[in-house]
């Protein structure tokens, strides 16, 4: 693969990662983040594979396979998966219930908000990332230097999603975008990360996501009432009062 072809492939895959991050910032609370997260993970795996071909490092193909399986399949599935709720005691038959007692059904209320400020904020963070990464792009040479600002942009968008997420699932999504941004920056800046290092980091991220998913699922079971995307954090703040 020539240097020009590698540069175009890296730019295309990095742009796909950035597009999915913007889509995750744009999505509503009821929409599933699994598709954009999976596309982002596979784009990162493809980026690592292209770097491996351009640099002549076959070990990066194994790293790309690990990234594709973990960030493209396992982690997006864990984020959207919700364990089934434990079945409560069986309700008595209608004939045995007193006539004055009626079950109260409280439907889940999804409080939405405009996605335009989030989209404009993400666009502003992308501009800030490109301005901040300009000195670094002058140092990094090769096919990866021009796409390095995308890694900075993913990190900033991930931080923004973490800071503004009102539901447990949204904050998990922000954490994964942040992790993908850090991984993208590392691969683009160094021309590849050793397999042992990537394996250790990936296992740490997997453990963190598992712990947060279990914690979020228990909170949802207690307070979420089946709301899409998990419990609204504003409801938990009301419990403090």
Strand content: under 5%
Residue share in helix: over 70%
Number of domains as seen in the coordinates = 1
Radius of gyration: 22 Å
Total number of helices: 8
Mean pLDDT: 76
Main pleated sheet: none
> Pairing-aware structural class of the strands and helices?
mainly alpha
**How many runs of DSSP E, i.e. beta strands?**
0
The separation of the N and C termini measures 62 Å
In short, what is this structure?
The protein has 241 residues and is mainly alpha-helical. It has helices at 3-26, 34-55, 59-80, 116-139, 148-164, 168-190, 195-224, 233-240.
Model description:
The protein has about 240 residues and is mostly helical. It has one domain (about 5-80, about 115-240). It is about 70% helix and about 0% strand. The chain has helices spanning about 5-25, 35-55, 60-80, 115-140, 150-165, 170-190, 195-225, 235-240. The longest helix has 30 residues, at about 195-225. About 35% of the residues are buried.
Question: What labels describe this entry?
Answer:
241 residues, globular, mainly alpha, single chain, 8 helices
List the helices and strands and how they pair.
Elements: H1 3-26, H2 34-55, H3 59-80, H4 116-139, H5 148-164, H6 168-190, H7 195-224, H8 233-240
Helix pairs in contact: 1-2, 1-5, 2-3, 2-6, 3-6, 3-7, 4-5, 5-6, 6-7
């Amino acid at each position: 693969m020539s240097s020009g072809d590698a540069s175009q492939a890296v730019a295309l895959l990095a742009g796909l990662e950035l597009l999915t991050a913007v889509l995750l910032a744009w999505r509503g609370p009821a929409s599933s983040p699994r598709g954009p997260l999976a596309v982002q993970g596979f784009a990162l795996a493809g980026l690592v594979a292209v770097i491996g071909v351009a640099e002549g490092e076959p070990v990066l193909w194994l790293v790309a396979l690990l990234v594709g399986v973990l960030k493209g399949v396992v982690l997006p599935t864990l984020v959207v998966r919700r364990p089934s709720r434990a079945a409560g005691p069986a309700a008595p038959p209608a004939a045995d219930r007193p006539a004055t007692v009626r079950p109260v059904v409280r439907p889940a209320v999804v409080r939405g908000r405009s996605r335009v400020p989030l989209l404009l904020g993400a666009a502003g963070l992308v501009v800030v990332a490109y301005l901040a990464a300009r000195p670094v792009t002058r140092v990094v040479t090769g096919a990866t230097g021009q796409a390095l600002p995308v890694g900075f942009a993913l990190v900033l968008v991930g931080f923004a999603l973490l800071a503004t997420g009102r539901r447990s699932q949204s904050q998990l999504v922000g954490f994964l975008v942040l992790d993908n941004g850090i991984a993208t920056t590392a691969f683009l800046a160094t021309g590849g990360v050793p397999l042992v290092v990537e394996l250790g980091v990936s296992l740490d991220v997997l453990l963190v996501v598992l712990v947060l998913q279990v914690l979020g699922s228990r909170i949802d079971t207690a307070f979420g009432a089946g709301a899409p995307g998990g419990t609204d954090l504003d409801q938990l703040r009301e419990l403090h009062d």
